[in-house]
Amino acid sequence: MPSPDPTPPPPASPPPTTNNRSHHHHHPPSTLLLIYPATLLLGCIFSILSPTAKPIPLPLPPTPPLAPSIATDLNTPTPLPPTIPINYFARKDNIFNLYFVKIGWFWTTLTLLCLLLSQPAYTRAPIHRARRTLQAGIRWAIATSVWYIITQWFFGPPIMDRGFVMTGGGCERVVPLVEGAIRNEGAGDEVDFKTVVTAVACKSVGGAWRGGHDVSGHVFLLVVMVSVVVFEVVGAGRRDFRGGIGEGKKGGEDEDEKGDRDEVGEGEGEMDGVRDWSGRLAWMVAGLGWWMLLMTAIWFHTWFEKVTGLLIALGTVYTIYILPRRVPEWRNVVGLPGV
């Protein structure tokens, strides 16, 4: 008789993996990005339903009659009645817009610098400190480059302004020019508004940026700004390096990181204070950034302009913070906050 089949061997254990860390448990989930379209939707609904979202029109001041020749030369359209914003945040000169949003990348950079100088993931990791700091700098550089070419300069006008012109927009005269500005000392040289190709230059000569698709730079900036700060502060604080919440070797922690938790030396109390304040700064910047995103959703731009600004921002955030979780080769370049 044939001998019975031998007992099947136990299933082979999976091959060991290097750096086997549960990244998803230490970083915000990608579904958290849904807060941004939800915020825009909430703002748009409020702007439609709330009576306080409607600005108050003012009567037009009387204008002196112009001589026919001058009126023909000016060829100015009938001006729209001015309005008074009924909400403080609907004013472009509100203090938060001037000193927070307009210089938003300064606050982003300051927050990241404070995290790098204070959080244990960067200050108490002797072996990984240089790599983590370098990769944090690469992430910041990518985000900064995207912000710069979208909103500031791209071999000339920024991409936002180039797209506006490509979709049929341009600079239009809205402020009647005085006689000396209409003609340069009688030489017949007029301001050619069609040659103005950036929104900043258009405003500086008294024109208005009209007729094209104006991607919301505020939405783009605020979404990238809040995302960078939140991903970095959560990642940098993912472990308690003082030994309170350690992963140990069971979670794939390196020996040097285990040593980081045990490295409690002099000056710990002072560093605790600096670490706490840098974290508070990060959450203050993120919170105010979200609030200003909601204000932008209520008071400024069309729905489509806000959506395009959002899509560009989400693509940037996905590339920097979500894609490295799925593509090891890209993670080796940009890293993950605190890893």
Describe this structure in words.
By secondary structure, the chain is mostly helical. The chain has a domain at 37-52 and 107-146 and 214-241 and 267-339. It is built from 14 helices and four strands. The strands form two sheets. It has a two-stranded antiparallel sheet. α4 runs antiparallel to α6 and α10 (217-236) packs parallel to α13 (303-326). The radius of gyration is 28 Å and the shape is globular. The termini are far apart. 29% of the residues are buried. The model is unreliable at 11-25, 58-81, 177-189, 240-257 and 259-267 (pLDDT under 50).
Instruction: Name the strands of the widest sheet in spatial order.
Output: 1-2
Shape by Cα distribution: globular
Total count of strands: 4
Share in β-strands = under 5%
What is the typical, i.e. mean, pLDDT? 75
Helix content: 40-55%
SS summary, helix count = 14
Extract low-pLDDT stretches.
11-25, 58-81, 177-189, 240-257, 259-267
Helix and strand sequence: HEHEHHHHHEHHEHHHHH
Structural class: mainly alpha
Task: Tell me the Rg in angstroms.
Answer: 28 Å
Largest sheet: 2 strands, antiparallel
